[in-house]
Design a protein that fits this description.
heterodimer, A: 324 residues, alpha/beta, Rossmann fold, seven-stranded parallel beta sheet, five-stranded parallel beta sheet, elongated, B: 249 residues, nine-stranded mixed beta sheet, two-stranded antiparallel ribbon, 25% helix, 31% strand, binds flavin-adenine dinucleotide
Amino acid sequence: MSVLVYTENWDGKFKKLSFELVSYAHEIAKMLGTSTIALSIGNVEEDELKKLGDYGAEKILKVEDNRVKNLVNSAYTSVIAQTAEKEDATVIVLSNNNSGKALAPRISVRLKAGLASGVAALPSSTDPFVVKKKAFTGKAFANVKINSNMKVLTLFQNSFGIIESGGSSEIEAFTPELSDNDFRTEVKEISKVTGKVLLTDAEIVISGGRGLKSAENWGPIEELAELLGGATACSRPVSDEGWRPHSEHTGQTGKIIAPNLYIAAGISGAIQHLAGVSSSKFIVAINTDKDAPIFEAADYGVIGDAQKVLPALIEAVKEFKAEA
Amino acid sequence: MKILICISNVPDTTTKIRFVDDNTKFDTNGVQWIINPWDELALTRALQLKESSGGAVEKVSVITVGSKSVEPTIRKALAIGADDAIRVNAESEDAYEVANLIADAVKDEGYDIIIAGIESSDYNGSAVGGMVAEFLGLPSVSAVSSLDIENGEVVVKREIDGGSEVMTSQLPFVAIVQKGIALEPRIPSMRGIMMARKKPLNVIEPAEVAPMTEYVSYELPPAKAACKMIDPENVKELVVLLHTEAKVI
Ligand SMILES: Cc1cc2nc3c(=O)[nH]c(=O)nc-3n(C[C@H](O)[C@H](O)[C@H](O)COP(=O)(O)OP(=O)(O)OC[C@H]3O[C@@H](n4cnc5c(N)ncnc54)[C@H](O)[C@@H]3O)c2cc1C
Ligand SMILES: Cc1cc2nc3c(=O)[nH]c(=O)nc-3n(C[C@H](O)[C@H](O)[C@H](O)COP(=O)(O)OP(=O)(O)OC[C@H]3O[C@@H](n4cnc5c(N)ncnc54)[C@H](O)[C@@H]3O)c2cc1C
């Protein structure tokens, strides 16, 4: 028996989210009295792979096959299913990010394993297997019972945390059997921004809404984000207007994020917006309208003009940093 | 070419979520049902492709797994412009079962492109599209934000962390779509609504499938403490609180 965790890499590097996944898988393995095995697909240096051991992976399987450098859903499903069978995995853990969402359902069907997606806690019991997951787009949680022997879980990012367990790990190369049928899609072109904190990774997010009035007024949002090492985001009307790129739109129909701190300036707090940000640990609202619904979701509020409050906040952060 | 859109019937996005029967059931009292926003955009895109393809796309169909109560939603899809509809008559609570039923219903129908949304706004499974692909043994691309047909070949854009990829796929294939696939959902016209009544809606009685998962109970997020108000003339206090109390900076 084992718990298998798929740890995606980004240009050969892992992220906080990878370590959270391994930590989570390791805690489940402890509940089941079994071992944690991490699977890495693509080229990752040994030193980097070893890091997974710090969070509880006892064995790290690496698959370095040039055909699986980019995500190919069928091929990756084959690799994960083959390693799950080889390691007699009863639980398979992935992230609830884009690649986890692409793979988990296929793995579920391939292995006849029940799927719970967006889980946000350890199973409350393992027999029967019941686990809490996000539902109704951030508005509720559901406890789901998985009836099958094998289970697939996708973990909601930033909902569990990181636990260092400092064990040792061994690395083993694995050669999957892949057929032409696994490669019916092809990546033609990749475009990527580099050197910016990604919205989905950011621990601090500074977000602006229609209350900022126009694209030219985003300077303070960007400056504050830069100052705090965070990312910038916006509400839907803002990206619809073309004031900001679509990749920054958060909410029900945009990105769903869970940073430690979300600062919303000139955002009213519509239910569809909150759906994407309500999992943030702390929310700060800056709004001229004391009755704006955002204050019901916020931990800290400032009633005032964002064009004045944001620059003042920037100064205060600079002062704080200078003192620290 | 034939395109199929999987349609999920979900509560309106403004619905206040409540549970009944000792928190074991979602309270559907007074809930307005809509087409899952992604599915509505997917349908819009499929219709655009049909209109612009010069006959390459012959037909756009929709399918849903649900009881008779979801028919208004599927009629709306017909009113928006789908040519025909399939309803698999089952009140399933499990994505695996839903996908299995969809795959069974369409496996011999020769659809070239099957589209599902990336996530339902109610149970947030992010499951049905990928599962249908696997049941049918088809390639799939997820997080698709644009879909085009160029010289008989499908070209899609897939969102990745910090960017996007342009991809092609052999047909048939399954696209799991998200933001960007169409800008605004198409609104049914009066004529569309009239015509929808006459369009074929085939009801299929399903085979029994055992559910893989069961929803046993629900919880609402813990109530938030009241928002602490900070004097706009003294935002320094906010920085202090974020550091000492929230410990986030
Ligand atoms: C199906 C559906 C899906 C949707 N999905 C999303 C989604 O994913 N994300 C999303 O964001 N929205 C979404 N929406 C739209 C949502 O309903 C709201 O319309 C939107 O979130 C409002 O954006 P906003 O808060 O920026 O603008 P507004 O609601 O116009 O709010 C502007 C706020 O700024 C304040 N303000 C004005 N001037 C100032 C100033 N000088 N300083 C400070 N504050 C000021 C105002 O008091 C107001 O509260 C969706 C809607 C539907 C129907
Ligand atoms: C406790 C519970 C009670 C339920 N009660 C009912 C009910 O009373 N009546 C009812 O009709 N359904 C009911 N459902 C079914 C539910 O609406 C979903 O169809 C199913 O659970 C899959 O949800 P998901 O979140 O995994 O979908 P996801 O995989 O997140 O959905 C993604 C996409 O898959 C497609 N899709 C999802 N569901 C369907 C579907 N049913 N038919 C066609 N395409 C679909 C859509 O394209 C959608 O955008 C219930 C589900 C649960 C868990």
